[in-house]
Amino acid sequence: MGVADTVLKIAASVLVLSSICMAAGDAKAAVFKVGGRVLCQDCSQGWNEWVNGANPIKGCKVSITCLDDRNRVINYASDLTDDAGDFEITCNKYVNGKELKPQNCFLRLVSSPDPICNIATNFGGGKSGVKLLRPAIVYRDVVKYILGPFYYTTPMCDEPDTSAPDEDDSDDAKQTNY
Predict the structure, then answer these.
(1) Which CA distances in Å does 10 have to 14, 16, 23, 70, 88?
(2) What is the rounded average pLDDT of the residues 17-27?
(3) What CATH number does domain 31-159 carry, 2.40.128, 3.40.50, 2.60.40, 3.20.20?
(4) What is the pLDDT at residue 86?
């Protein structure tokens, strides 16, 4: 019976190792990525330069906020842009045992380190927030949403809000963010 016990132990070890490998593979598939680019638009340029001549900003902070079905924040993550103005945020699909739905996540601009180009614009939705709708890449274990580009501008280009404040502005149901 010594041979039979050894065979059973080896079989049990193989099952344990295969389940560990499968769990590691599932953990890799249990994420989604969000990426994009942040640029600086200068309104003092001509139309062609304004539209096509935006420059990347290094070090901009971009964040993602994910809500549960009861509209409570269950995940927050952020990333800084690189030299090309690109960012990529990785989010786990499961947080505290609950499934995170990408459709309940919003991406927005947080801050710019550029002393001249630091006013967030809503051109591309970066100021108010962009909801994740459809992934741009779905391939094997990779699910990636690509958003943007998002833009900052100079204080000279910022249009002031001249609308009269509403009397019932404190009602949360009428808020447009998220």
Answers:
(1) 6, 10, 20, 48, 43
(2) 39
(3) 2.60.40
(4) 97
